[in-house]
Amino acid sequence: MTSYRYGEYQDGPDPLAPPYDVRGALDEMGDAILSGSTPLDALRDLLKRGLPNAPDRRGLEELLRQVRKRRRDLRQNTRLDGILEQARELLDRALDQERTELFPDPSDDARFRETQLDNLPGDTARAVQELSEYDWRSPQARRSFEELRDLLRREVLDSQFKGMRDALANPDPAAMERVRQMMAALNEMLDRDARGEHTQQDFDDFMRDYGDMFPENPRNLEELVDQLARRAAAAQRMLASMTPQQRAELASLMDQTLQDSGLADQMRRLGDSLYTRRPDLAWNSAERVSGESPMSMGDSVSALQELADLNYLESSLRQDYPGARLSDVDEEAIRRALGRSAVDDLQALKQIERELEQQGYLRRNRGKLELTPKAVRRLGETALRRVFNSLESTRRGDHDQHDAGAAGELTGSTRPWRFGDEQPIDVVRTVINGVRRGGGSPVTLSVDDFEVAETERRSAAAVCLLVDLSYSMALRGTWAAAKQTALALQALVASKFPQDSVQIIGFSNYARVLQPDELAGLEWDMVQGTNLHHALLIAGRHLDRHPDFEPVVLVVTDGEPTAHLMRDGTPQFEWPPSRETLELTLAEVDKMTRRRATLNVFMLAADERLRAFVDEVARRNGGRVFAPNVDKLGEYVVSDFLRARRRS
Q1: What is the mean pLDDT of the chain?
Q2: Could you tell me if 47 and 90 lie in one domain?
Q3: Is residue 437 domain-shared with residue 499, that is, in the same domain?
Q4: Considering only CA atoms, which of 434, 433, 416 is closest in space to residue 425?
Q5: What digits encode the pLDDT tens for the residues 69-99?
Q6: What does the alpha-carbon distance between residue 30 and residue 190 come to, in Å, rounded to a whole number?
């Protein structure tokens, strides 16, 4: 018998896992977008704040704050001349020990040696160079000087190869010879790569022989070059950050140490190769540091290397350059600077950005981030949900008319299918008819077997929402509310009244029909004119195309008409409004009245001219005038629409 074992899926992501829910993130972006932000700016603001409903996850702003704090701490606790101080102390100790040995000796040789010591240059590097051939009389002095040379050798190599200091803690000729062999092999591998002859096997062989000298465990030559170049650049920045005297002294000590170790030529070749491969690094820029405790040369280079990482992280985390994306942020640099938890926070933010595109809410069109129709529908549903949450339960209501028809709730009755029916097929009744007719197996169906489920019919409406796009809407802070209202009404009609035909019309100097997909990213018009005349003309055509539908016309504006459409199709602007503009606009109001269309006006300003105009509209048409607070506009419009639909 075959047996099966079930367990957790191990081969990558769970294929049955639900998709990542980014709807909350989109809703938060929607608030900013509807207030006038672009989708790109809204996404950046969201990523800066962090994940919605996830207080344990840090956003870019918090990560950036921690990066800046770490950089500030490093600068305040880094002192670069520690190696010079250590070298001077060891040199002075050796000289004192040698003088102590020479003092009791009355010979001329002793006095000559004292003269040599007294005439040494004040510069540590030059003094060490002159003493390199000196025959020490004091064994203690000889040991101190050798300790100085060992220190320089370890620190100079550690400044170029992280971890080399520990490897050379107890140097011997064999250890130094192995370092020279490693350098030669490394330069040869880089030369082969430059000629296009390098293979991964070459790198693996190199790491097998010398991998213990590279504690960061690079996986390939590219990673090794990156590690070495970043450290070499930090060493150069360390020199650039010193005073001219310190720089000259330390550079001389480094050159002398490399010459004595037989590594000068190989180190020069390596430096040239690294600079050629990574010229983008800041090789000679100075850092301002102000620490009090001296640091070793290797630790100073590590500090400057970390500072370079932090500078790069600050730039990438700000995301304020053209084409910025979270994929630009180096996760390894985040881990080095802030730890593993920061990497998890960054990955969560990247998942938002990635999923918004993969799940079809955002798309990039010629480098520009745009909302998709799916996202616009979501924003409309969210706006509508907020409106309904604000409405009192008594203000909600149905508007159904019980009569067998084409849409609405099921009545429980069925009837034979007729060509053109849109009602749902009653599958059970259809199959039973086929069985009864055929009486055999398999069951075959004919057209006569199909039955449809009857539904309640809802009366259809032709809905026109006229939204003011003039610049004053932005100045008065009513623009976002108007867009939210339009989206909410669009979502309401699409979800609850699919038989209705809705048209949203924006007007400034001209009027135009607004498609649902463009509502969210719509901006106000920087032009003069409030051409309600043109908007009513377009709305009238929409109503005329649906003569059997109940007409519903809603107007959202913050100003009286100041423009009208001339016979040649151009707009005529005049302020204060001309008599012709008012007469032509009111003539279209009268036409709406003859169409039995009631105009309800939502007035977003308390201007006397506007009040006088809308009162005249109400007198001629019989519609109502509302003066809602901006944050209640959506509730007023949706409630008024539902009230009109219940009456139909």
Answers
A1: 77
A2: no
A3: no
A4: 416
A5: 888 887 877 776 777 777 888 888 888 888 8
A6: 52
| Tokens 């929402």, located at residue | 465
Say whether both 191 and 47 belong to one domain: no
CA 648/CA 641 separation, integer angstroms: 11
One domain, residues 53 and 101: no
Contacts of 445 (CB under 8 A, 6+ apart): 430, 431, 433, 434
For residue 117, the tally of other CB atoms under 10 A from its CB is: 18
Let me know if residue 126 belongs to a domain.
yes
Instruction: Give the C-alpha separation, 578 to 572, whole Å.
Output: 10
Q: Which of 234-238, 291-295, 574-578, 582-586 comes out lowest in average pLDDT?
A: 291-295
Same domain, 614 and 520: yes
| DSSP output for 516-550 | HHHHTT---B-SS---HHHHHHHHHHHHHT-TTSE
Residues 322-347: b if buried by 16+ CB within 10 A, e if exposed:
eebebeebeeebbebbbeeebbbbbe
Q: Would you mind telling me the total number of residues written for the chain in this entry?
A: 648
- Better pLDDT: 133 or 20: 133
Q: Give the tens place of pLDDT for each residue, 32-75.
A: 776 667 777 777 787 787 766 665 667 888 888 888 888 888 78
Cβ count near 183 (within 10 Å) = 22
Block residue for tokens 């000559």 = 112
Residue 31 lies in a domain: yes
Residue ranges making up the domain that contains 444: 409-456
Residue type, 252: S
What is the residue whose two structure tokens read 């920087």?
526
Can you tell me which residue has the tokens 């100085």?
Answer: 148
Taking only the tens place, the pLDDT of each residue in 275-295 is 888 888 878 777 777 777 777
Alpha carbon of 549 to those of 356, 425, 562: distances in Å?
A: 39, 26, 31
pLDDT value for 201: 92
Ranking 54-58, 209-213, 335-339 by mean pLDDT, the lowest is: 54-58
Q: Which DSSP string corresponds to 157-207? A: HHHHSTTHHHHTSS--HHHHHHHHHHHHHHHHHHHHHHTT---HHHHHHHH
What is the percentage of the chain residues whose pLDDT exceeds 70? Answer: 82
Beta bridge partner(s), residue 425: 452
AA identity, residue 23: R
Q: Which tokens hold the place of 309?
A: 């990482």
| Residue with more model confidence, 431 or 10 | 431
Rounded Cα–Cα distance for residues 420 and 440 (Å): 30
The neighbour count for residue 264, using CB atoms within 10 Å, is 15
Helices (runs of H) and strands (runs of E) counted in the chain: 25, 12
